[in-house]
Design brief:
Helix content of chain B: under 10%
Mean pLDDT of chain B: 89
Oligomer: heterodimer
Largest sheet of chain B: 5 strands, mixed
Number of helices of chain B: 2
Strand order of the largest sheet of chain A: 3-4-5-6-7-8
Mean pLDDT of chain A: 88
Strand content of chain B: 35-45%
Largest sheet of chain A: 6 strands, antiparallel
Distance between the termini of chain A: 59 Å
Radius of gyration of chain B: 30 Å
Number of strands of chain A: 14
Low-confidence stretches of chain A: 1-28, 30-41
Low-confidence stretches of chain B: 1-17
Shape of chain B: elongated
Radius of gyration of chain A: 22 Å
Strand order of the largest sheet of chain B: 1-3-8-5-6
Shape of chain A: globular
Helix content of chain A: 10-25%
C-alpha cells in the first residue's frame, strides 16, 4: 500500500510537472490555473476520497471555484460536450470530467464508452436561462457519475432555491419551472429530477463477465464518436479527444474516428439529413434500443454504429419498413416503425410527437415534445422513398 | 347562343363529376359493381367527420370526401373493397353508415386491411335500408376503384356482444369497473383530470346515472393502471391511481359522496396496482409494480397507507409488470404471480417471471424456480384461473413480444409444480402479443375463457383447449375492463366509451356479492368454491387483474345448462368458512362473512361444548356464555350436507336417528351469530 502511494505521488509529481510545462507553453484552457497562479489566494484543489463519496453537498468536491452557481471549473475539471445532445425538456447542460492525478482513460472503440479510471467523475449540470418570473438562470440539478473500483455509481445533487448549494438526494422529485425560450415564448414543465432507479434505466447494460451475464452501469455521452469535434474551451478551440490526451486524461494510442464514425450535431442543417437523424436517435434513443439494453426486445437498433450499416441494414435498424410488433392502443395506421414518405403511418413519429406517457418516447427524461427533433425526424421520413 | 353552350356544358360536367363529393348527392352504386372514384385533386367535397372508429393521425383531419349509396333489397352480407389489383395498393379508407345525411349511424369502417393500404369492410345489410359509403383523402388524393359485392356470410359468433355507448364514460383514463356505491352493481369510473372524477352508476333499470366528484389535486392520473378496493372497510370502494410518477389514493367518505386525495410522494414508474391484504390483518394494503426497481407496497395501519419497498419482487432493475394475487397452493393464504418483462436483455433475468408464496407471517418467498414458473418471457400480464376445474389455479403466461417465446399455458399440478401444456392448447398457434390477459367465463359454460390479444376471446373447454371467436371483437387492445354492466349474469366488456354488452345465451350462472366482517370488506383474497354436477369450480376474489384495468370484484360463475347448485363455499382470508347449500342459480348471492347457517367461524368455535361426545341418544349443549339465546340448530355431515334441523329442548338434541359417523352441529343465536362444533354418533 505504501509502495502504491509512493508510486502514485511520483506519478502525480511528474504529471504536475508535465502539465505545468504544458501550460506555460500553451495558453489553452488554463483560465482556472491561470487564475490560481495569478491570484495570491489559495484555491483548494478538487477534494475526492473514493471511500467517502458521494459527499453530502456538491460544494464538498471543490469542482467549482468562486460562487458555486457560476460553475466555473476548478483546476483539471475539464468541460466537454457530445456532438449531439440528449433532449431533456429544453434544459441546458454544462458537463465536466475530472480524474485523479496520474490516471487516464483508455480508448475502447469509436462507438464504445471511454474506459475511465477508478476515481473519475463526470459532472453534468442541468439549468434553464430566462426563468420566470425574474428572467434569471436557475440550476436545477447536478448529476455525477463516479467510477468506483466496483463500477460506476450515480450521485444526484439538487440545488437549493438560493442557488448556493446542491444536496445529495437519490429519491427523485419534481420541480415546476417556466421560462422564456429563444423565440420569447413562455414554456413550462414540471421538471423531473431522477431517482437512482431512473438513472439506471438508461445507464445500465448487459455484460458478460466470466461467461456470466451481469448488469453494469456505464456513462453514455463519452464515446470517441461523440467527442470528435472542435470544442471552444474559451481560450482555444480544440478537438476534444486531443484535448483529453493533452490534459493527460486519455491514453494516446488510437487514431481519431473517421468522419463515417463520427456523430454530428443534429441541429446542423448543413449536414446530410440521414446523418443528422442517425446522430439524433443515437443520443436520444440508443441507450435503450440497442442489444443488451433496457428495451432490446423491440426490433429497433438505434446506435450510430448500427444505423450506419451498409446494404439497407442500417435503415432496417432505424425501423424503416419494420413491423412495430406493438400495436396496443395505437391507431391501425401505425403498423410500421418508419413508413417511407408518411409520418402519419410511422410509429416512430407518433411516439416522439406525444406527451401521453403510455405512448411517448423517450419514456424517461422528457415530458415535453422536442419540436425540433420531431421536425427533423418528420423531414427525414418524408424524404424516404422505398423500403431498404 | 354559341357562347353559352360551352358554359352550359361546363356546368353540366361540373355537376356530374362532383356528385360524389357530398353526402346528399351521393352516387348510387349497384350490388355486384365496381366503381371508379376520380382523384380528389380537383374536387372540393365534404369530408366525413364521423369516423366510426378510425382516427386522424397527428390530429390532421381529411379535407375531402367521396360519397356513394345503395339501398338493400334483401337481407344479406356485403363487402366494400378497394383491395383490387388495378388499385396498386392505393391508400384509401372507408366508412359505412346507415341513415340520412346529417343523422348518420355508423355501420363500420376500415383502413389498412390486413397490412395493405387498401380498405375492406364486410357488413350485414337489411332489406330496405339505405347505406352510405364514404371515402376520404386523409392518405391519398389519387383515383381508385372500389367494388361492392355479396360476401359469404361471416362465421357465426360463438358469443355476440352489442356495442353501446355509455354517456357517463369520460376522459382518457376510464378503465375501471367496480361497485362504487355499495349496491354491488358494477359502476364505471372515469379519472377525468387531476381535479375531477366521474362515476357512472349502474341503475336497477340498466341505465347509468353520472356523478361528478371534484377532487383535491391528485397530481397524477391512472395513466398506467387503476385498482379499486375498500381499504377503510366502510362499504365504499376507494381507488389507487398508478402513474409514471408514483401513486395517488382516493378514499371515499362515510357515505361515498366525496373522495379525499392522498398523493404519495415516491416518484417511480408504476405498472400493475392492486388492493390486497398482504399481511392478512383484515385491512387492505396496496401493491404497486415498479418498472425499474424493487416493487413497492403501502401497508395499511388502519390510519395510513405506509410506503415500503422491498421484500416482494426485488429484482434490482425492476421489470415488474403485473402482480396477480391468487392462492396457488390452496393453503388458504394468497400468493402472487409476478409477470415480468424486458430489462436489458433477457439474459440478465429481468424478464424471468416469479411466483411468490405467502409464508403466512407477512413475508413472501419466490418459489418460481422449483415450481417451474420461472419463465423467461416478455410478459406484461397473465391470465390466472382454474382452467380445467381441478381445484388448482393455473396460469396462462401472456407475452407482449415474442422475442423470448410465445404465450405459455401452465397447468398447476397441485404438488407445488406447474407443467407447460401449451402444445395443442390453441395458444400454440395464437400469434398475437398484448398487454392484457384475463380469465373469465364469458359464455357461462362453466369453463374459464381468456380475454386475449387481437380482440379475441379464447373460449376454454375445461381441458386446456382454447378456441378463438371466429370474428375479432371491436375491443381496445389495452383499455378493456370487465364487469356485469347490466346485471344479467353475463360479463360485459368496456372498450373506451363503448360497452360491449354480452348478448348471452341459455346458460345459467351465479354471482357472489361478498361482505367481509373480520376479513377485509371486499373479501379480496377469499376463495370461492362452487359445487354441482360439474364438480367444483373455484374463483379467488381479486382487485386488479391483467396489466392495467380494474375489473369487477364480484366473483362470477357460469354453470352451463345446469340449474342446481349443490353448495357455495366461501373461504375467507380470516379463516371463516361460509357454506350456502342449494342456492338458486341465476342470482346475485349476498354472503356476509360468518353469516351462513353453515359458517364455521374459527373465532367462535369455543362458544359451546357438546356432551356426551361420542353421543348415542341425545347430545347436550353447554353454552359458555349463559346470556346467549340459541334459536336455531342444525346438523350437517362433514361435507356440509344438511341432515336435520332441531328445536332444542332444555339444551338437548335428539340424535337417535342419525347413522354412525361424524357430524357438525351448528347453532344460530338471536343476533344471527353462528357457532359450530363437531360430534361423533356411535
Amino acid at each position: 500500500m505504501k509502495q502504491f502511494y509512493a508510486g502514485l505521488i511520483g506519478v502525480l509529481m511528474f504529471t504536475l510537472l508535465v502539465i505545468s510545462c504544458t501550460m506555460n507553453e500553451d495558453d489553452s484552457y488554463v483560465d482556472v490555473s491561470d487564475a490560481s497562479k495569478q491570484s495570491t489566494a489559495v484555491v483548494a484543489p478538487v477534494r475526492f476520497d473514493l471511500s467517502a463519496v458521494p459527499f453530502p453537498k456538491l460544494s464538498d468536491y471543490h469542482f467549482f471555484i468562486g460562487p458555486l452557481k457560476n460553475l466555473k471549473p476548478n483546476y483539471k475539471v475539464l468541460p466537454y460536450e457530445p456532438a449531439s445532445v440528449l433532449f431533456s425538456d429544453y434544459a441546458h447542460k454544462k458537463r465536466f470530467v475530472w480524474m485523479p492525478r496520474g490516471t487516464k482513460a483508455t480508448y475502447n472503440g469509436d462507438n464504445k464508452t471511454l474506459e475511465l479510471p477508478v476515481g473519475a467523475v463526470l459532472i453534468k449540470n442541468f439549468y434553464y436561462d430566462r426563468v420566470l418570473p425574474n428572467n434569471t438562470t436557475r440550476i436545477i440539478e447536478t448529476r455525477l457519475m463516479i467510477r468506483k473500483a466496483s463500477g460506476w455509481i450515480f450521485a444526484e445533487y439538487v440545488w437549493n432555491a438560493e442557488q448556493t448549494e446542491a444536496y445529495y438526494d437519490m429519491e427523485g422529485s419534481f420541480t415546476p419551472i417556466s421560462w422564456m425560450d429563444e423565440n420569447n415564448l413562455v414554456k413550462e414543465t414540471n421538471y423531473r429530477i431522477p431517482s437512482e432507479a431512473q438513472c439506471a434505466i438508461c445507464h445500465k447494460r448487459k455484460e458478460l463477465v466470466n461467461d456470466v451475464e451481469v448488469t453494469t452501469y456505464i456513462p453514455i455521452g463519452i464515446k470517441p464518436q461523440n467527442l470528435n469535434f472542435n470544442y471552444n474551451y474559451g481560450n482555444t478551440v480544440r478537438n476534444q479527444l486531443n484535448m483529453w490526451i493533452q490534459q493527460g486524461y486519455l491514453q494516446n494510442n488510437f487514431s481519431l474516428p473517421t468522419p463515417e464514425n463520427t456523430i454530428i450535431d443534429y441541429n446542423d442543417s448543413s449536414k446530410p439529413l440521414e446523418l443528422r437523424v442517425r446522430s439524433y436517435v443515437d443520443i436520444n434513443c440508443s441507450h435503450c434500443h440497442s442489444e443488451g439494453r433496457h428495451c432490446d426486445y423491440r426490433p429497433m437498433r438505434f446506435a450510430f454504429s448500427d444505423t450506419g450499416l451498409p446494404n439497407g441494414a442500417g435503415r432496417t435498424n432505424l425501423g424503416v419498413c419494420v413491423n412495430t410488433e406493438d400495436m396496443q392502443g395505437f391507431p391501425e395506421d401505425l403498423g410500421t416503425i418508419v413508413n417511407p414518405g408518411s409520418t402519419d403511418r410511422s410509429m416512430l413519429y407518433y411516439r416522439i410527437n406525444t406527451t401521453n406517457e403510455t405512448f411517448r418516447m423517450p419514456l424517461h427524461g422528457r415530458t415535453m415534445i422536442h419540436q425540433e427533433g420531431v421536425a427533423l425526424i418528420g423531414q427525414w421520413i418524408n424524404s424516404l422513398q422505398d423500403c431498404p | 347562343m354559341k357562347k353559352k353552350l360551352p358554359l352550359f356544358v361546363a356546368i353540366f360536367s361540373f355537376t356530374f363529376a362532383m356528385a360524389q363529393e357530398h353526402c346528399d348527392s351521393a352516387i348510387t352504386v349497384a350490388l355486384g359493381s365496381t366503381t371508379t372514384a376520380p382523384a380528389f385533386t380537383n374536387e372540393a367535397g365534404e369530408a366525413p367527420t364521423q369516423l366510426c372508429g378510425l382516427t386522424n393521425p397527428n390530429n390532421n383531419p381529411a379535407t375531402k370526401g367521396k360519397w356513394y349509396t345503395f339501398t338493400a333489397t334483401e337481407n344479406n352480407t356485403v363487402t366494400v373493397s378497394t383491395l383490387l389489383p388495378q388499385n396498386n395498393n392505393a391508400d384509401t379508407r372507408v366508412i359505412v353508415y346507415s341513415g340520412e345525411c346529417g343523422a348518420l349511424t355508423c355501420v363500420g369502417s376500415n383502413d389498412d386491411y390486413n397490412g395493405t393500404n387498401s380498405s375492406f369492410l364486410t357488413f350485414p345489410i337489411t332489406t330496405g335500408t339505405k347505406y352510405i359509403i364514404a371515402f376520404d383523402n386523409r392518405f391519398s388524393q389519387a383515383t381508385f376503384d372500389f367494388s361492392l359485392t355479396v360476401a359469404p356470410p361471416p362465421a357465426e359468433d360463438r358469443l355476440s356482444f352489442t356495442v353501446t355507448p355509455v354517456s357517463g364514460i369520460a376522459g382518457t383514463y376510464n378503465n375501471c369497473i367496480a361497485d362504487m356505491n355499495g349496491d354491488y352493481r358494477d359502476d364505471i369510473v372515469s379519472a377525468v383530470s387531476n381535479n375531477l372524477l366521474v362515476i357512472a352508476y349502474q341503475q336497477p333499470d340498466g341505465t347509468f346515472t353520472n356523478t361528478d366528484f371534484p377532487l383535491t389535486n391528485t397530481v397524477v392520473l391512472p395513466s398506467w393502471s387503476i385498482a379499486a378496493g375498500d381499504f377503510d372497510n366502510n362499504g365504499y370502494n376507494d381507488l389507487i391511481y398508478g402513474s409514471g410518477s408514483g401513486v395517488t389514493f382516493l378514499k371515499a367518505n362515510a357515505n361515498g359522496t366525496a373522495y379525499s386525495t392522498d398523493r404519495k410522494n415516491q416518484s417511480y414508474l408504476v405498472q400493475r396496482t392492486n388492493f390486497v391484504d398482504i399481511n392478512n390483518d383484515g385491512k387492505l394494503d396496496a401493491f404497486a409494480c415498479d418498472d425499474n426497481a424493487p416493487n413497492r407496497y403501502y401497508m395499511n395501519d388502519g390510519t395510513n397507507l405506509n410506503h415500503i419497498q422491498g421484500g416482494i419482487g426485488d429484482f434490482a432493475s425492476g421489470g415488474n409488470y403485473a402482480s396477480l394475487w391468487s392462492d396457488f397452493n390452496n393453503d388458504g393464504k394468497i400468493d402472487m404471480h409476478l409477470s415480468k418483462c424486458g430489462q436489458g436483455g433477457s439474459g440478465v433475468g429481468g424478464n424471468i417471471n416469479q411466483l411468490f408464496q405467502n409464508n403466512g407471517d407477512g413475508t413472501y418467498t419466490n418459489i418460481a424456480p422449483t415450481a417451474n414458473m420461472a419463465d423467461p418471457e416478455q410478459t406484461w400480464s397473465s391470465a390466472v384461473g382454474d382452467f380445467n376445474n381441478d381445484g388448482w389455479m393455473d396460469v396462462i403466461v401472456g407475452v407482449n413480444s415474442m422475442s423470448n417465446g410465445n404465450t405459455n399455458v401452465k397447468r398447476n399440478n397441485g404438488d407445488g409444480t406447474f407443467t407447460s401444456v401449451t402444445a395443442g392448447s390453441g395458444f400454440d398457434t395464437f400469434n398475437y402479443t398484448g398487454r392484457e390477459y384475463v380469465a373469465e367465463d364469458f359464455d357461462n359454460d362453466g369453463f374459464l375463457d381468456v380475454l386475449a390479444a387481437g380482440g379475441l376471446i379464447m373460449f376454454g373447454d375445461g381441458d386446456f383447449h382454447f378456441t378463438p371467436n371466429p370474428n375479432a371483437y371491436p375491443l381496445s387492445t389495452v383499455d378493456r375492463p370487465m364487469g356485469d354492466l347490466n346485471n344479467d349474469g353475463f360479463i360485459d366488456i368496456q372498450s373506451g366509451n363503448n360497452v360491449l354488452f354480452n348478448d348471452g345465451n341459455d346458460n345459467h350462472w351465479i354471482k357472489l356479492n361478498l361482505e367481509g366482517v373480520q376479513s377485509n370488506r371486499n373479501g379480496i383474497g377469499a376463495r370461492v368454491e362452487l359445487y354441482g354436477a360439474w364438480g367444483k369450480q373455484i374463483r379467488d376474489v381479486q382487485s386488479g387483474t391483467g396489466f392495467q384495468n380494474m375489473s369487477s370484484i364480484n366473483p362470477h360463475f357460469g354453470i352451463g345448462a345446469e340449474t342446481a347448485i349443490e353448495k357455495v363455499i366461501i373461504r375467507w382470508p380470516s379463516g371463516t368458512v361460509d357454506t350456502i347449500l342449494n342456492p338458486s342459480s341465476d342470482q346475485n348471492l349476498l354472503v356476509v362473512e360468518g353469516s351462513s347457517l353453515l359458517a364455521v367461524s374459527q373465532a367462535k368455535n369455543g362458544a359451546f361444548t357438546v356432551y356426551p361426545n361420542p353421543a348415542n341418544e341425545v347430545i347436550h349443549v353447554k353454552l359458555n356464555d349463559a346470556s346467549t339465546i340459541i334459536n336455531q340448530a342444525g346438523i350437517y355431515d362433514l361435507s356440509g350436507r344438511f341432515i336435520s334441523s332441531s328445536n332444542m329442548t332444555n339444551e338437548t338434541i335428539d340424535v337417535k336417528s342419525l347413522a354412525t359417523g361424524s357430524y357438525l352441529l351448528l347453532l344460530k343465536d338471536a343476533q344471527g351469530n353462528t357457532y359450530s362444533q363437531k360430534f361423533l354418533k356411535k
